[in-house]
Amino acid sequence: DYTQIYEEDEPYTEMGPNARVWKVYNQEVIRVDSDRIEDWRDGLDSLLVFAALYSAVITTFVVQTSTKLQQDWGEVTANLLMELILVQRAGFNGAPVNSIPPSHLTPSSKFTPRPLDVAINALWFFSLALSLSTALAAIVCKQWIHQYTNMPPIGSPKEKAHVHHFRFVGLEKWHMAGIIGILPIFVHLSLGVFFVGLVILLHDL
For the chain, which residues make up each domain, given as ranges? Predict the structure, then answer.
């Protein structure tokens, strides 16, 4: 009962800086916000942990498959060495050197990646970018929550109530609850895109 916790205001001071109504307001908003803020923080913490682990895993796949988007100089070197060995063997055997077919891979040959490799890497790069963007948004949301709950240590109860209301209006204006609620959807989308690329890769094996 707030009437027993806080003393009754003197006449004509019911809306003053230290009035009981502001003290009751500050106490009630802490109670109302605590459950919602705790749910937000738990959800964002779980999201950040999953996004970090998932980004590390998909980065490993991207590092392996992105090499197929450029010329494999090891393969070029192996082909040229094989051609050189065949030329030397033909010379030792007295066979004409012109009979050795030239290697189709040379440093000057034009390289074009397979459309399948391009598709897989495009899907996985998009998935990685979406996961990292979601993690960044979660960090920003946690900063907003910290600013929302970090009330000024000094000031009258009326000033603290006004600060809280100003921040609450800001959260409602920027649809804080909706943003936090939609972040897991982006993680699910990122995971789905990754699995599509994985299925394409396994089907090509």
Answer: 19-70+114-204, 71-112
Distance CA 176, CA 142 (A): 11
- Cβ–Cβ < 8 Å for 145, 40: yes
Higher local confidence (pLDDT), 91 or 201: 201
CA-to-CA distance for 69 and 118, rounded, in angstroms? Answer: 7
Residue 51 contacts residue 132 (beta carbons within 8 Å): yes
| Structure tokens given for 57 | 């895993």
pTM: 0.76
Q: What is the pLDDT of residues 58-103, one digit of tens each?
A: 999 999 888 888 776 676 677 667 767 777 777 777 777 676 777 6
